[in-house]
Specification:
By secondary structure, this protein is of the alpha/beta class. 30% of the residues lie in helices and 17% in strands.
Length: 155
């Protein structure tokens, strides 16, 4: 009796896992960029550029780039924790972080002219009028992110 119950519970969990993977995850547009492809390179690039800009506005459409910025930037936990702000859990039961230090991770990427700000977006978030000035951040030869500044002088 108990063995059959355990087998049924296990099978139902397997079915739920398969459903979540094939129906939920693969059905999302972000599956074009599996997991966090390019996030390490993004973090390394941002920390290299850190002294040059007052602000970084970074897409979070695929996940939470703040984790990679903290890890690869060796950001001190004692410096991060007082400024950490987390949203309520999202549909995947993760919190989201709207930003820390010079970094902003907007819910919806809106590009407006801002002085001394570096934008980092996915290719399909890149406004048409800025394609000529944006430069790619690549991963395995593929353009994963684009970065650009958008000041009144480059309109």
């Amino acid at each position: 009796g108990i063995l059959i119950l355990l087998i049924l519970v296990h099978l139902s969990q397997d079915v739920q896992s398969c459903y979540t993977y094939y129906q939920s995850y693969l059905g999302q547009k972000v599956a074009d960029y599996p997991w966090q492809v390019g996030s390490k390179g993004l973090a390394e690039f941002v920390w290299h550029e850190y002294p040059k800009y007052d602000q970084f506005i970074i897409t979070k459409r695929q996940g939470q780039p703040y984790i990679y910025l903290l890890f690869y930037g060796k950001y001190s936990p004692s410096k991060y924790q007082p400024q950490a702000k987390h949203t309520p859990y999202n549909e995947f039961t993760f919190w989201e972080n709207p930003g820390f230090d010079k970094f902003i991770f907007p819910d919806h990427m809106t590009v407006v002219p801002k002085k001394n700000t570096l934008y980092i977006v996915y290719p399909d978030e890149l406004p048409e009028e800025l394609k000529s000035i944006a430069k790619p951040i690549k991963y395995n030869g593929r353009d994963i992110f684009y970065y650009f500044t958008y000041e009144p002088s480059n309109i």
